Amino acid sequence: MSQAAVKSVTEVEDLYGAGTYHKRKLVIVRGQGARLWSQDGKEYIDCVGGQGAANVGHQNPYVNKAIQEQSQNLVNCTELFYNDQRARLLETLARLTPARIRRFFFCNSGAESVEGAFKFARLATGRTRIVAAMRGYHGKSMGALSATWNKEYREPFEPLVPGFLHLPFDNLEKTCQAITDETAAFIVEPVQGESGVRPGSCEYFQGVEAHCRKTGTLLILDEVQTGFCRTGRMFASEHFGIEPDILCLAKSLAGGVPMGAIGISEAVSAKLFKLAHTSTFGGNPLACAAANAAIRFMEDRQLAERSRDLGAEFMSELRQINSPKIREVRGLGLMVGVELKEKAGPYIQQLMERGVLVLGAGPTVIRYLPPLVIECDDLKRVAAETARVLG
Ligand SMILES: *Cc1c(COP(=O)(O)O)cnc(C)c1O
Fold this sequence. Notes:
It is built from 15 helices and 17 strands. By secondary structure, the protein is α/β, with parallel strands linked by helices.
């Protein structure tokens, strides 16, 4: 491809895109597993992983085949009707999610999953207050944004939904003080993603869960990023032995095809009424077929175990890097962050120039969310390149 063609893609996007994204000057046109290729033919190791949507890898053979086959049967079918792919996915999710989660509402993104969760929590409890965690990220639609912590995202859009309160993440005492018998729900990520890859502690999650049960508050786990094998379990709640009343899912649910889901307990479901919440594209057969294939792949290939083992090895390699710039290496499974004592941006850029694509998470953290199919040698190279740029 000529240089002019590369320029025209970026020019067109810069000219006609709404302009709400930080973009890297890179035109990605193809992927395979944990590799990506740019329009000018350069190869990259992908540790962006679709920001968490590519757990099963690019051009996943199961997902590709399912999309092809389903496109020849039926792409769209609203929930006015029943559908075979949707029924199959419901059964699978009911089998895999925590025991308390018995029913599912399908939507199309993470923010939508969080929006619906809040509506369901209000109906189920008759209460309106929501407690969330500082540094939490739950999306950018008005309700989800009300739970998101970052003031830069929130303040320009105030007034937001009333009744939201943010307490320090992983602080059991303060969180319990804020959760009362007037609180509809507490929403939290098992590992905070966007704000810096921060796993919470067992004591915190179990303590909050017990306090929620005592006050009749619903526990909403936002597993949009941690779900589907990312942290070394199918769902991160399994690490902490907790049972949410509402479970938010999206990102890798359908192998990269846009889809979200809200898992709810039988008690929450009992309080919903017909048309309380709906979505035209929710539960469409194409996304459901992709999800069925993606989840089958995760189970066949034991992606959770792979994520656990590769993540442990990767983190131990990162911890061996002898650099005064590193404050901490932390994570769970293949959700990994390197916190620096300085801004991460320049190092993210240098890694890209060396053929490794990574994410930021807050100003000082380099975040790695590789597809879980990544080869061991590729991860070793990512660690080596990280050592080089930080050395
Ligand atoms: C990405 C993310 C969201 C929002 O998902 P979108 O699909 O971008 O709306 C919500 N919660 C968490 C934890 C996320 O990582």
